[in-house]
Design brief:
The complex is a heterodimer of chains A (117) and B (111). By secondary structure, chain A is mainly β. Chain A has strands spanning 4-7, 10-13, 19-25, 31-37, 43-51, 54-57, 64-66, 76-78, 87-94, 107-108, 112-116. Chain B has strands at 9-13, 18-23, 31-38, 45-50, 53-56, 61-64, 70-75, 84-92, 105-110. Classes of the chains: A mainly beta (117), B mainly beta (111).
Chain lengths: 117, 111
């Protein structure tokens, strides 16, 4: 298994540009989520999904959209990039609902470093 | 969601046992305690999880007193490779309430 994969690894955007951060997992996990991590800070939840077709907002959802059309994929879209969105973005997945909820082990991807100029 | 409080940073010499304590005074009956480890430029990695008393795996031990208002992650004989940020999380199993990561404890292991 590849686990959780994220692309791209690094991206530079100009203010106002849009882009999609890709996240995929091959473990048949129901639960997927997106976090951002700013320097010296912990992870903050952006959006999460408990299964295909179901998404919900986390702590810092503004400026981001998500969709979950398949179990495997959970892309994060930046609608109009701003310098405040410069961060490292992590995607995570777990078995979720059908087993023990989000307290089941979360598997994190390697992250995407985003710089918005 | 129960809030957690951890020391911001800790230093240790190689070969010593390191204990990181997490306070969670408002822990609920159905909450579990989970610890994650994060190395620089990597995503967090699950270390250990427990509900009460003591849990041990190949990496660490987790001590939880009877009142469950705190927990202690114990790393035996740390090495330089244990330098990382350690996060304590509290949440309910069987529900989809999102995990909440605080700032964690930055452990620096010195040779």
């Amino acid at each position: 298994n590849a686990g959780v994969t994220q692309t791209p690894k690094f991206q530079v955007l100009k203010t106002g540009q849009s882009m999609t951060l890709q996240c995929a997992q091959d473990m048949n996990h129901e639960y997927m989520s997106w976090y951002r991590q700013d320097p010296g800070m912990g992870l903050r939840l952006i959006h999460y999904s408990v299964g295909a077709g179901i998404t919900d907002q986390g702590e810092v959802p503004n400026g981001y959209n998500v969709s979950r059309s398949t179990t495997e994929d959970f892309p994060l879209r930046l609608l109009s990039a701003a310098p405040s969105q410069t961060s490292v973005y992590f995607c995570a997945s777990s078995y979720g609902t059908e087993r023990t909820g989000t307290q089941e082990t979360q598997y994190f991807g390697p992250g995407t470093r985003l710089l918005v100029l | 969601l129960a809030k957690t409080t951890q020391p911001i940073s800790m230093d240790s010499y190689e070969g010593q046992e390191v204990n990181i304590t997490c306070s969670h005074n408002n822990i609920a009956t159905n909450d579990y305690i989970t610890w994650y480890q994060q190395f620089p430029s990597q995503g967090p990695r699950f270390i250990i999880q427990g509900y009460k008393t003591k849990v041990t795996n190949e990496v660490a031990s987790l001590f939880i007193p009877a009142d469950r208002k705190s927990s202690t992650l114990s790393l035996p004989r740390v090495s330089l490779s244990d330098t990382a940020v350690y996060y304590c999380l509290v949440g309910e199993r069987g529900r989809d309430t999102p995990l909440v990561f605080g700032k964690g404890t930055r452990l620096s292991v010195i040779a």
